[in-house]
Design goal:
402 residues, alpha+beta, Endonuclease, Chain A, 2 domains, ten-stranded mixed sheet, 10 helices
């Protein structure tokens, strides 16, 4: 049974929506933000589980699915699934004449959850597996997962009820309670950018057709494979061949560090498997950037960051807080790009881990910059603070920052 919608918040300045205050609700928790990026309407939605299960992102995805008209097409990449009413909405869309195609991480094959049984009723669905234990669609790693969380819609409606085409939805939330509604997550919907939707659809098609590449090397900028540029956002898809470039390091290289630079990272997990990424953060900090991180826990209450990286970042002057149930994979920067200062949001499905870059099917998304008006950045800034300001301050003495 579909849960009742959460109580609507009050619309504040800059497109940020907050839940009303009460004795049992967190104060000013950020739920949504809206902006126009490169001429396209963009909405961001956030979950904040401080006072319980938060359906904000999943109700919005359900609304997008239910708004898709007959004759349109929905494509979706699902890492994990247990929310029945989203599966029901996809089957109902197919039944009313929408073409629905989904790829699903292979671990769901053995799931007995009713939502997975419902998804099997879709004419066009693929459970991805590779070899004896791989669960990726493109990835050939035996440890690989299809970790992308992404949907596209050739036609649907925006939150104001306006019919829109070429719609792209992506973020960190799985279609589950544990790593969806019950965790800090973010999702972005971009309306009207055909280049973005077509790029994501190209990645989806490679996953659906389970295309594999020598050396598990999908991302190849030289041939535009796994690399999709558009007006509102650029998308970089994993896996990347081991020992080659790091898609996130290359984006952080765009920043010229100075005393005005600000970098905030909201990440489920950061490990030693991407030393150049850790070094890049340290270089930005040494160049004058102020850097804050809020990192999730490993399920036991310990920060999901190994001690060597933890100490290295703290020694560099990075401020780190641990907050349980952070499942986000985003960072935001106010910094100089070329000769101008810009506000920018980076999001997607990639944790700061080696497997996210080299073994899994993932997407990393660089949103186009905002300038004097920056409501998307402001929404993410508030979402970051929802977790950071209520987390545990980390020191070398209190590792693992419980």
């Amino acid at each position: 049974m579909r849960p009742q919608a959460v109580v609507a918040g009050l619309v504040l300045a800059l497109g940020i929506v907050s839940a009303p205050s009460s004795a049992t609700a967190e104060v000013s928790a950020t739920r949504t933000a809206s902006a126009v990026i490169a001429g396209y309407p963009v909405w961001a939605h956030f979950t904040n589980p401080t006072s319980g299960r938060d359906y904000t992102i999943h109700h919005e995805l359900e609304r997008l699915i239910k708004s898709a008209p007959s004759g349109s097409t929905i494509r979706g990449a699902i890492h994990s699934l247990s929310i029945d009413w989203i599966a029901d909405a996809l089957v109902a869309a197919q039944n009313r004449g929408v073409k629905v195609l989904v790829v699903i991480d292979g671990k769901n094959l053995t799931s007995t959850d009713p939502s997975v049984a419902t998804i099997r009723r879709l004419t066009n669905h693929k459970f991805c597996e590779y070899g004896e234990s791989g669960h990726g669609c493109i990835s050939t790693s035996q440890d690989g997962d299809m970790h992308t969380k992404m949907f596209t819609f050739t036609s649907t409606r925006d939150p104001h009820g306006v019919a829109r085409g070429n719609v792209s939805w992506f973020g960190s939330a799985n279609l589950t309670y544990a790593s969806g509604t019950d965790a800090f997550n973010n999702a972005i919907t971009v309306y009207g950018d055909a280049g973005l939707m077509n790029g994501l659809n190209a990645n989806f098609t490679d996953m659906y057709n389970q295309r594999h590449f020598t050396g598990n090397d999908y991302y190849d900028a030289a041939t535009n494979r796994g690399y999709y540029l558009s007006s509102a956002a650029d998308v970089y898809a994993s896996p990347e061949g081991t020992g080659q470039t790091d898609t996130i390091v290359n984006r952080l290289n765009d920043i010229t560090p100075d005393a005005e630079c600000r970098l905030r990272v909201g990440m489920a997990s950061i490990t030693a498997g991407r030393p150049e990424l850790v070094n890049q953060v340290k270089r930005l900090k040494a160049g004058g950037c102020r850097v804050w991180m809020v990192v999730g826990d490993d399920g036991s209450g310990a920060i999901s960051m190994n001690q060597a990286v933890y100490n290295d970042l703290l020694d560099a002057g990075v401020a780190i807080h641990k907050k349980n149930k952070v499942h986000d994979k985003f960072f935001l920067a106010y910094a100089k790009y070329d000769t101008a200062y810009r506000w920018r949001v980076y999001t997607g499905s990639q944790n700061w881990t080696q497997d996210a870059l080299n073994e899994n099917d993932e997407i990393f998304v660089k949103m186009a910059p905002e300038s004097s008006s920056h409501p998307l950045y402001d929404g993410y800034y508030a979402h970051f603070n929802d977790a950071y300001n209520n987390g545990v301050a980390c020191t070398k003495a209190n590792y693992p920052c419980r």
